[in-house]
Automatic annotation (TrEMBL), chains A, B, C, D:
Domain Xylose isomerase-like TIM barrel residue range list: 20-252
InterPro entries documented for this protein: IolE/XylAMocC-like, Xyl_isomerase-like_sf, Xyl_isomerase-like_TIM-brl
Name listed for the protein in its UniProt record: Xylose isomerase
Organism: Paenibacillus ferrarius
Any one Gene Ontology molecular-function term assigned to this protein's record: isomerase activity
Domain of life where this protein originates: Bacteria
Length: 279, 279, 279, 279
């Protein structure tokens, strides 16, 4: 399982280049980055070279389509999606992810029908380029009532939704924070097949009651109470081999320098990987 | 548009034969009947002959699959579905319908995901036999709060769901009662394409406030307040050529003889077809 | 059925504007034109206005994706397809068409598998924008052996392929020339449903043996031997209401002025529509 | 990887019970057997108990649908398929397989379209029960010209076909004999993902030129020239964990007793598993 970083939790990164250099310097193997932006700034060959010389792969791109609101906004995103998919594929990235909010202002059943059709279209376009779509269920309790109607937030619901979407390239973005806030166990991970998991996020939670854990109250791996060793061991046991990307969402951005934050991230990974007995 | 009957509203029919004979005697051209039952009792050739000599076609069969509850019950219905589809196809029937309750005790979004997948499977099996699946949205207001969570009940939601199911052989069962209780107009019908409509139900409503119309308070066509002439004209204008089947759901079954009820039904059809200017 | 024109057979058109003006001047109601080009040159509003003031609709756009050769070329076309689909939808055009050559240098079964997947992807993208994909089977006999292996060319094969593609928005581009060169009859048209037909091409054939008819030997409607009255009547009988677009493919481009060619086209339409008894 | 047996190569088995007992006695862990037949003769509980007490799982059932000829025959098989799938699922079997002949008397492209649609329907039905469909490409050269037109026989073509079918539960039945006769290498196996492989067959080939290897000239593992150690190592390296079932197709059935043939099979497995360094 590759050590991965997203930009979230690294403070004010000056550039993609800085992100790439710091990730490589501190032993990370994967980054979640905007592949299309990288291709636009460096060209395909330049972007490949930049990643290659730092021995980095792209863990996942984000889904550049607004599927949660109007049909117009959704359709507006599709040309961009084809370009982003082409860029990701050109850089060897096979994953694209989006998150699923656990409540909605729309009527829940109707929104589920719309979202099913829209994400299917996204998956079909991504699939043409050999890219998978990962859906991230979101566990923090406060978000379940943030909008008018409950939507979905559990692992089981998300797996059922993936079946409803019905494309072979759709799977889970499995995030330790949402695993934790859903009250899931290592045994729940072990019931999955590795090929159901598109991408993994890792981060830790403070020692507060489960129902009070805030989505933007995340802390660095190894600094909190989530059983990340068990989380990683479960993933390894089922044969997951992809990236495990840190994503620290916080209410206010950290003010330390990016380098010190990447260093701190490395320390977290060192700790939890060691606890998990993973090389 | 073929004049059609379902058994609902005809009192205590003694047998399929009686149903068929009465329908033919009073000028109906289509009946909604259990094709598999007919094939089991008469054989394919016998059933064809029985229908043929009465110049009747089967308007639609009902979906013999319980898709609204447990996965086990759902799967149990699939062998039966293949048999029912084979029987319907053998008798020249190309339609199969099911209704959609407007509320549910399950979490609405999750149930929508499950139901999408299950109805897709049903549509796929039916499609192998050249049969379409019609979804009937259900309008009466009291049913929207009958179970814990609102599901879907509007035409627009149902069309969006059909898109989410994503099979080319899924369309609407368009029922005059649900059109009326949704407050829809003839213009709403005219926005549809004929190929979006799998089957049509006709029946009338008593003169009570719209929100008080009960699902099982239906009356015979022409005896109530629904603009059935407009309904039929709208359907004709968009080129719908299938069956229009009467379905009178009532709290208590009518006690008149089936023959007098079929006669009454004929009078209703005569009236509303004449008002609509349809031959 | 709308009288329609493609650029093929109109000689050296100077501009889209000339095409539009001539089409309108001679009573045509639909043109097959590059919607994206029109939007790029005039903006969405300008293009709408240009078409609107000439009372013209766009019959169909061409599929801007090379699905017949390398995977790379195929993928390169997808961003363009999203843009073309968005432009077509913005201009109210709901159809996109491509033709199917009756032989191929690739192994036929393998190419069928690849083409099925590629055209499905195209249909899925078009479907997101509410646009249908029409497949044109190609009848002239000489093309059946033009490349190494026979592919498909009959109506039945094409319908079976549409089922294999399996998207609800795929249908036929039905061309009188290919209907004729396949030896089909009016009865074959009457077996179709209108919703299976995405778009129609019309043109005529010289009086030569059927097997000698050349794909690029087409002549103007009414000047040859095809039973175009029967063709149009069949389409009308099944309820086809879309455009019937002339497409005169010739070995050498006609040298007459576009205006005289559009005039000649009008005379042809006048003749065959009159023979068919269509207003 | 589970040691598995099919009935092919075991001579005249007297009953399912004998098959099961011999398989267990000689250390096999999986058998390919008719799950529906077993359920019909023993009931679900009885069949589970029979398999359970012999520590056997069912590797795969065969697809009980004739998808290679008439539409009528195809449809006739669907009710049986639902029953077979239900039986397999009840016994914990998640795989169903069919083979693909490398030539056909039908026009190749048209047959590919028909077969794509039919196998998709089969996959959809199987998928409802959580069962995967494995397609076995068939390599022996003589079969490529056995019927009029070449169809498909390579790994690459089969993977492309799986994409054309477009259901997430379709993968490969990977047979050592077809791997060998296609001239494939261990590196070709290593390019696959384990989740692309539904089931594996193992058997050996005599020392004759590759193009002379006959489909029904198979011999026991370890008695021929195929690099079965490499084959098994490749599968293990990509993480395949399912059954590896022996299937010895011969021109005439072996005349030795089933017990001696199972014993011989065990010796073959012992040898090639040992050579592969698999426990």
């Amino acid at each position: 399982m590759l050590r991965g970083l997203t930009g979230a939790g690294l403070g004010k990164l000056e550039s993609n280049e800085q992100f790439i250099e710091l990730a490589a310097k501190y032993g990370f193997q994967a980054i979640d980055i905007d592949a299309l932006g990288l291709v636009e700034s460096h060209g395909v060959d330049g972007a490949r070279e930049l990643l290659g010389k730092h021995s980095l792969v792209i863990g996942s791109i984000g889904l550049p389509v607004e599927w949660r609101h109007s049909e117009e906004a959704f359709l507006d995103g599709l040309p961009k999606l084809t370009q982003a998919a082409a860029a990701a594929a050109a850089l060897g990235c096979k994953n694209c992810c989006t998150y699923v909010l656990p409540s909605t202002d729309y009527k829940a059943a109707h929104f589920m029908a719309l979202a099913t059709r829209r994400l299917r279209t996204c998956a079909q376009i991504l699939g043409a380029y050999g890219i998978r779509l990962g859906l991230e269920f979101v566990g923090p309790h406060h978000l379940r009532t943030q909008w008018k109607h409950p939507f979905i937030w559990t692992l089981e619901e998300t797996l059922d939704w993936i079946d409803a979407i019905g494309e072979s390239n759709v799977g889970l973005l499995f995030d330790a924070y949402h695993w934790y806030t859903n009250g899931l166990t290592v045994a729940d991970i072990e019931k999955l097949r590795a090929d159901q998991i598109v991408h993994v996020h890792i981060n830790d939670a403070p020692d507060v009651p489960l129902e009070d854990v805030r989505d933007n109250g995340r802390i660095y791996p190894g600094e909190g109470v989530i059983d990340l060793a068990g989380f990683l061991q479960g993933l390894q046991r089922i044969g997951y081999k992809g990236a495990v990307a840190q994503e620290i969402l916080t209410a206010a951005p950290p003010t330390d320098s990016p380098e010190s934050l990447v260093q701190r991230s490395k320390a977290g990974f060192d700790k939890v990987y060691a606890e998990a007995g993973i090389g």
